[in-house]
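ugh ok fine here u go
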Amino acid sequence: MLFTRKKTDPESQLREILDGYELPTFPAIYLEALQQLRDTESSLGTLADVLATDPGLTARLLRTVNSAAFGLRSQVTSVHHAVSMLGRGHIESMLVSLASHSALPSDPCSGFDPERFWRTAARRAAVARALADRVSPKERSECFTAALLSDMAIPMLCVRKGESYARIVQQWHDGLGELQLMEREAFGWDHAQVAAMMCSEWDFPDVIAEAIASHHGGDDSEKGVLPAVNLAALIPEVDAEAHIEVLTQRVHESTGLEPSDVQTLVEESFRDAEEIAEQFTA
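structure:
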């Protein structure tokens, strides 16, 4: 199995799993902006100037900031305003989300329905953010991004592995087993491990990378790096509404929030997710 070869570096493991395929790099504008963000001597004004040079990125940032995902009371009208209001951490999470979306497959294939995939990702992100607001507000941005991208390896694997992988994904959608267990049995790895390698390749912030890698942490998954992400990962791609009761109970057991409050939170998050999903499917 690939993950018994401790001396093999993640990049080589990832290429082997993806049949020699190398991940695309992020577009140059994202790389430059992320470099500015991580340079402690660079000002937020300089970062905003970099972002403003790309009209497409500026438009996507403003749409995202003004969407239900952030719940701002007043509209943000410029990228300089967005950067000054949100700060480095929130902007970095947003850029990672948008850049990852641009680098992932966008065409449907067996096992991967882009609209359904991103709708589910948006629901997980909205629920994780709402839970973080209640129990750990400082982590809301990281929870949103990690939950949004928790299954980001699945589209790549569907494209690269073809029917052998898509068949397992379909069995998961049909409720015939847990995806990560079927993946390990068939291939010796699971999508969370592959996603962790992708995080390494794309230089994700550590907390987001660790949360994605451990989003299926087991029976006590709510004790993960970002517990809200593990709980949001319980939302499936198929018949998600039918699983709200199960999700409500798990959140209640983990956080102590009253079931009626949790159910309201989840239902409101699902509504917010419709607007969020538009940012990734338009």
